[in-house]
């Protein structure tokens, strides 16, 4: 099982190595995650597919982590080697959050978001939010991008299964209201982690922030906070520290709710009716 993986690591590190220990790590619902120890006592994180997932997922994650790392703003695991069937990452030993972990993450995200794209909003390829295909065709207008490739796509996925129910009626009204909600947003397209819920962030041994498992694209920076608000775990101190570097524009609370709705709809499409009420509540608030 590990022969091709060991050969890839050995070639990357330019020395013959073997795996002497492999310990599964709990938490992944899409991939199997294993901490491997080599005979030189170094440790790495190995991700292999545990289900039917598109073949390019590891390559996209590899390149997304490289982009995030190159920004030199917030720590991410270094991606070592990638293959169609596996991804080998730096293993970062989890630690206890420092007292200023939230503030550090907020400032680091603001610096990450200073990395912009001249092509506009999108990414070099489509990628995945969980197992949902996330469309990333380049567009110059954020309003059009969000309408067509984010909110509209999630509503389409829902309608294919549920038809035109009460949620779809509100969803269509909201699509028409996007002109009012987003028309004044004139900010640049910035590099986003894209799926920064609390389970994709931790502290290293120094207590400093680490983020991982991205669904990156270039978008409006406030979109980062939709998923951060959805499940909590970051808090107001993180947002306040972010604003020390780059304050939010007027009306951001409403936009945060709109960006949160995208993730609520994705969870509704992936996991079912337990997210229906949250989607309806967000739509009611926005309308």
What labels would you give this structure?
five-stranded antiparallel β-sheet, two-stranded antiparallel ribbon, alpha+beta, globular, about 290 residues
Which secondary structure elements does this structure contain, and how are they paired or packed?
Layout: H1 3-13, E1 19-25, E2 31-38, E3 43-49, H2 57-70, E4 79-82, E5 86-90, H3 101-112, E6 127-129, E7 132-134, H4 142-162, H5 166-182, E8 190-192, E9 201-203, E10 209-211, E11 217-219, H6 224-231, H7 236-245, H8 252-271, H9 276-286
Antiparallel strand pairs: 1-2, 2-3, 3-5, 4-5, 6-7, 8-11, 9-10
Helix pairs in contact: 3-7, 4-5, 4-8, 5-9, 6-8, 8-9
Number of strands: 11
The mean pLDDT is 94
- Please write the string of helix (H) and strand (E) elements: HEEEHEEHEEHHEEEEHHHH
**Biggest sheet: strand arrangement:** 1-2-3-5-4
Percent of residues in beta strands: 15-25%
Major beta-sheet overview: 5 strands, antiparallel
Rg to the nearest angstrom? 20 Å
What does this structure look like?
By secondary structure, the protein is an alpha+beta fold. The strands form four sheets. It has a five-stranded antiparallel sheet, sandwiched between helices. It has a two-stranded antiparallel sheet with strand order 6-7. A hairpin with a 2-residue loop joins β6 and β7.
């Amino acid at each position: 099982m590990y022969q091709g993986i060991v050969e890839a690591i050995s070639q990357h590190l330019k020395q013959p190595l073997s795996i002497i220990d492999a310990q599964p790590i709990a938490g992944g619902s899409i991939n199997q995650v294993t901490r491997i120890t080599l005979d030189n006592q170094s440790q790495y994180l190995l991700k292999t597919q545990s289900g039917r997932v598109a073949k390019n997922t590891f390559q996209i994650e590899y390149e997304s982590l490289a982009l995030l790392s190159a920004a030199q703003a917030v720590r991410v695991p270094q991606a070592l080697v990638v293959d169609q069937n596996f991804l080998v990452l730096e293993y970062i030993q989890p630690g206890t959050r420092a007292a200023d972990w939230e503030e550090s993450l907020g400032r680091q995200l603001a610096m990450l978001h200073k990395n912009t794209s001249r092509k506009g909003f999108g990414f070099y390829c489509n990628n995945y939010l969980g197992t949902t295909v996330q469309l990333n065709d380049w567009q110059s207008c954020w309003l059009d991008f969000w309408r067509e490739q984010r909110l509209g796509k999630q509503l389409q996925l829902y309608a294919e299964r549920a038809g035109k129910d009460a949620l779809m009626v509100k969803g269509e009204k909201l699509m028409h209201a996007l002109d009012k909600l987003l028309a004044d947003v004139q900010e640049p397209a910035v590099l986003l982690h894209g799926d920064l819920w609390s389970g994709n962030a931790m502290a290293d041994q120094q207590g400093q922030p680490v983020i991982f498992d991205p669904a990156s694209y270039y978008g409006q920076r406030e979109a980062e906070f939709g998923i951060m608000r959805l499940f909590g775990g970051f808090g107001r101190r993180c947002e306040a520290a972010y604003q020390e570097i780059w304050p939010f524009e007027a009306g951001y609370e409403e936009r945060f709710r709109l960006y949160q709705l995208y993730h609520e709809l994705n969870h509704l499409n992936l996991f079912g009716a337990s997210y229906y009420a949250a989607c309806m509540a967000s739509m009611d608030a926005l309308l």
